[in-house]
Amino acid sequence: MSIRFNHALLLGSTTFLSVSSISDVAFSQVDLPQVEVQAPSPIQRRPAARPAQQAARPAATPAAPAAPAAPAQGTLPVVTDQFATVTVVPNEEIRRNGSSTLGDLLFSKPGITGSSFAPGASSRPIVRGLDVNRVGIVENGIGGGGASDLGEDHFVPIDPLSTNQVEVIRGPATLRYGSQSIGGVVYSENNRIPEALPCRPGETPRPIVTKAPPAATADQAGCWSAEVRSAFTSVDTGVNGGLLLDAGKGPWVFHADVFGRKAEDYQIPKYPYLVPPNPVDAPRATQPSQFNGTQPNSSLRTNGWSMGGSYLFDGGFAGIAVMQNNALYHIPGIDGENHNTRIDATQTKVLSKAEWHPPVAAIDVIRFWSGVTDYKHSEIGLEDPLNLSTDGVRQIFTNREQEGRLEVTLKPFNLRFAEMTTAIGVQAGHQELTAPSPDDPGSPLNGLWSPNNNRRVAGYIFNEFKFSETTKAQVAGRIENAHYNGSVPDFNSLIFDASVPGDIGPSIGRSLDFTPKSASVGLIQNLPWNMVGSITAQHVERAPKAAELFSRGPHDATATFDIGNPNLKIEEANSIEAGIRRAAGPFRFELTAYYTRFNGFIFRRLTGNTCSEDACIAGDGEELKQAVYSQRDATFRGIEWQSQYEVAPLRTGVWGIENQFDVVRATFTDGTNVPRIPPVRVGGGLFYRDSAWLARVNLLHAFPQNNIALVGETPTPGYNDLRAEISYRWVPTRLTPDSLREVVVGVTGTNLLNDDIRNSVSYTKDEVLMPGRGVRFFANVKY
Questions:
Q1: Which of 181, 278, 306, 656 is the most buried if burial means most Cβ atoms within 10 Å?
Q2: Phi then psi for 548, rounded to 5 degrees?
Q3: Which sign, positive or negative, has the C-alpha torsion 414, 418, 423, 424?
Q4: Nearest-angstrom CA–CA distance, 442 and 352
Q5: Rounded-to-integer distance, Cα 584 and Cα 564, Å
Q6: What backbone torsions phi and psi does residue 437 show, to the nearest 5 degrees?
Q7: For the segment 274-332, what is each residue's pLDDT rounded down to a tens digit?
Q8: Is the pLDDT of residue 26 over 50?
């Protein structure tokens, strides 16, 4: 591990020094538009090329401000004005990538991977080795609201088909979203709550005149736009499509979208189960002689829709949207195939958002977000694999959640030594969780946990100091109170039988309070050669989550019998992160190193015992592994690198090279390994692009992961993931209000070597292979 680590550092340093020696004249050949992000900070800086937006109050028009020119497709987006690394996946990359989950979309980004429990259906992003309870999923400023943080088999109810941009933030910005985002935030943006009229090129609506004669108001022009997204995938005989509509007139603007996808069992290179199942124990599971080239029980169907609207007024907007996500997907693996396990999930969510630039001297902008979520899914399967009549609901999860957030950003204040901008925010939420099982209603272990609820209230503040145009600092803090109500049986011993009196005591009601406090400080400094350096330090505290406190039963998804611990303490993390980035010129890159020390790191510890649905024994013998939520001190450290270099002009475009590297090492203080950590990865490739064409080929190599936990984890072999793509973008030479705006068509190839890819962070990696060689055809049309 250390040899690979040092070799990669030497390679990266050599590349950096050789390219840095290029003259400033060469670097200045390419001037890219700045990447705009919304999630990292409540103090939002507008691009220098758009001085009209510097004003405290936008113009009184419903039209969108003129957008800056978008970077050429395939350009590496590097964010240089934030205090920690921000990974951005822009709209055009989402369309070309075509992944059906956020985890799959971000799978190969440096420092990020996916949980891949059910590839294509259930894959949650994992950031720097941190997973469900430390990575927030946010849609338009409000939590995703599903149950993906309660179980690795649960889908994330945010589909890339309806997403316009994804941002992954680390560092101080996570304080904006809560202590449960200690590892990072995955922020999904879309236009479901419109913020401006969707004026297409060639359309110029007349501005709203609030004190004008009625005739002038009635004569206001309207705008509309439409987009069709579609694709076909060969690896799973999959099809997907989406339609997005935006229209507005005067102060009103509306949005609607609908999407859907379906896929059959996906193809894989070879028989997926490392240890073939015993036909007696799993009579329906595929044996090697029955293998048909696909991952058994991996098909899916998903669909969704949304409708929303906003009212635009002088200085701001206010809007609301209603959306629904539905999914029916199968769970691969021996147990999933044997019981024909699938999940039928529905989420309905109402979001609202508002922004106002008040006409006062002290306040720049007031922003508001709120959301109400009703989520339910049923885990369906055969109680008796040999009796089809026993098919039914085995487990139900529900999540009813409400959340709101209010921010006030003050106008810059001159401190003489610096210009200070302050943003203050408050956040509150309430959640009710249930996880009943109809199999044995009278058992004290019925379901994964008893009904429980929690409420959260928090306040936070960001102070940004602009010492000069080249030096900025940020100081941020957050205090939060989390209150939990729930119950858990009294386990007298980890070896027990629910049918034996005294082995399990009665359920004990618990009312728990936690007050995590967090703070951060950061510095950004412009450097020679258009580089930007940053360094941040943080102290972050996280309250345990409901699943960590109150679990007390079988969890089929992870094949574990989970036992929560209501005596868990607040988890603390002290971290430092340093980075250097460059977004201008033909050579763009970002390099980040980080070190985090956790005090009381909460994790799911496998004890070595095994369990049935209502009893646990010492050693092997039952189908479920016993897992107890525990705390230990741990250290995470890692490096992330990615770059893109435009080597030379070619025909009407440019060709170049790109590469990446990431490593995370996580150990407990006794030197043993934190379980389920991503492997060391290195990759690179070639690209060509011009105003119409984009072609690229890229190879990502993952080294074997042998740094595994002492109990319950197996080594994972390395893999090579070869990908290629070619796409064509057509834009009409003459735009009219009724013409097509853009057509993009393309072909992408994934896992072209048809390699056996197993994801080391997945609970099912020994039974589930990632999809094999596949080709995807896609088309995106904008009106």
A1: 181
A2: -70, -25
A3: negative
A4: 41
A5: 50
A6: -125, 130
A7: 999 999 989 999 999 999 999 999 999 999 999 999 999 999 999 999 999 999 999 99
A8: no
Distance CA(47)–CA(196), nearest Å, equals: 18
**Both tokens assigned to 445:** 């272990």
Residue of 284, 236, 268 lying closest to 381 (CA atoms): 284
d(CA 456, CA 569): 17
What's the pTM? 0.89
Q: Are 161 and 256 in contact (CB under 8 A)?
A: no
Nearest to 47 by CA among 65, 59, 29: 65
| Type of residue at 29 | Q
Helix (H, G, I), strand (E, B) or coil at 751: coil
Report the pLDDT value the prediction gives residue 506, as an integer from 0 to 100. Answer: 79
How many angstroms separate the CA atoms of 681 and 700, rounded?
7
Helix (H, G, I), strand (E, B) or coil at 504: strand
CB 325 within 8 A of CB 306: no
Q: What single DSSP character describes residue 759?
A: -
**In this predicted model, which residue has the larger pLDDT, 539 or 144?**
539
Alpha-carbon distance 556 to 559, whole Å? 5
Question: How confident is the model at residue 445, as a pLDDT?
Answer: 73
pLDDT in tens, 240-261: 999 999 999 989 999 999 999 9
Q: Span 216-234, mean pLDDT? A: 77
For residues 67 and 289, what is the distance between their CA atoms, to the nearest angstrom? 58
**pLDDT at 64 > cutoff 80:** no
Q: In the numeric block, which tokens belong to residue 301? A: 């169907």
